[in-house]
Amino acid sequence: MLGSERITIPQWEKHGVEGKERKEGEPIWEDIAQGQIDAMGAGHVENQLGQQDSIQLIEKFEGRDDAVWIGVYDGHYLPAEFLEDEIVPNKMAVAHLVEAFREAIKEGKNYEDAFKSAFAKVDEKILSQGWGGTTATVMLVEGSDAWVANVGDSHAYKFKKVLKPERLTADHNIISNKLAKKEAIDRGAVYARGYIHVPGGTGLKLSRSLGDRGMAEAVSHEPEVKKFKITEDDQWLVVASDGLWEEVGPQVVQYALQKSANAEEAKKKILEAVQNVEGGNYDDVSVVVVELKK
């Protein structure tokens, strides 16, 4: 079980957070004036091989009191591939994706095209450094409007009080999504033993990611982008790496949310649920819990 692993709150300055410095364990935001968000909580369960996830949180995005940028990036690489910790794929995404998005907006692109442009630029940067890659799931909330863009299998969900959880992101895992598998094969990949391969390359379970030089054209960097509304019936948003959804699933997350008084408590209950799974797969788990105003 995962009980032998430690829960860590990310060191904010290492994860691209803008705004005031926060101490470990301190709530993210008690309140965001004039917005839809009431409070947030974030944290990791780290595996025994080291942390390859990153969380990014930016409040008052572009000067708007009601705007928040959330990013979860789950890297996959061998540490020996990268000479410096700062240039591993998930941390490169933290460092460059939001700036590339801002540049695209300044060029007059709409949000969907800006996300696609930003993902393409970060993909190029990661490809220039090594053979590894990362998932990327980014959510931008502006009042009652929100967008989510993703490659890979780190997902975002919206939760109401009683209804079934709504997944907001596309699934690019070739095991859980046959369309993702077909997409990769159509681009030249070969499927064998749960992975897609290209001649002379490495195996991967994703049809879309950032980086992954060894997969050539078989893996796409283009995100799927979705715009959605936050309504008065919505209570929570949760963005997390695949370790959460594979270990406990959205129904368990929903139960933890229903039993929690605030975002920090919900985050802790969710991570405890991961730790209590028998025979866990020791994957990193990173989660951001957003409590919406009632």
Question: What is the fold's blueprint, element by element?
Answer:
Elements: E1 7-8, E2 37-45, E3 53-59, E4 67-76, H1 89-106, H2 111-127, E5 133-134, E6 136-142, E7 145-151, E8 155-160, E9 166-167, H3 178-186, E10 190-192, E11 195-197, E12 210-211, E13 224-229, E14 234-240, H4 242-247, H5 249-258, H6 263-275, E15 285-292
Antiparallel strand pairs: 1-2, 2-15, 3-4, 4-5, 4-6, 5-12, 6-7, 7-13, 8-9, 8-14, 10-11, 14-15
Report on this structure.
The chain is of the alpha+beta class. It has a single domain, classed as Phosphatase 2c, domain 1 (4-Layer Sandwich). The chain has six helices and 15 strands. The protein has helices at residues 89-106, 111-127, 178-186, 242-247, 249-258, 263-275; strands at 7-8, 37-45, 53-59, 67-76, 133-134, 136-142, 145-151, 155-160, 166-167, 190-192, 195-197, 210-211, 224-229, 234-240, 285-292. Strands 3, 4, 5, 6, 7, 12 and 13 form a seven-stranded antiparallel beta sheet that branches. It is globular. 47% of the residues are buried.
Features:
disordered N terminus; 6-stranded antiparallel β-sheet; 6 helices; Phosphatase 2c, domain 1; 294 residues; single chain; alpha+beta
Give a short summary of the structure.
It is built from 6 helices and 15 strands.
Query: Which structural category do the helix and sheet elements fall into?
Result: alpha+beta
List the total number of helices: 6
CATH superfamily: PPM-type phosphatase domain
- The portion of residues assigned to helices is 10-25%
Number of domains: 1
CATH topology: Phosphatase 2c, domain 1
Strand content: 25-35%
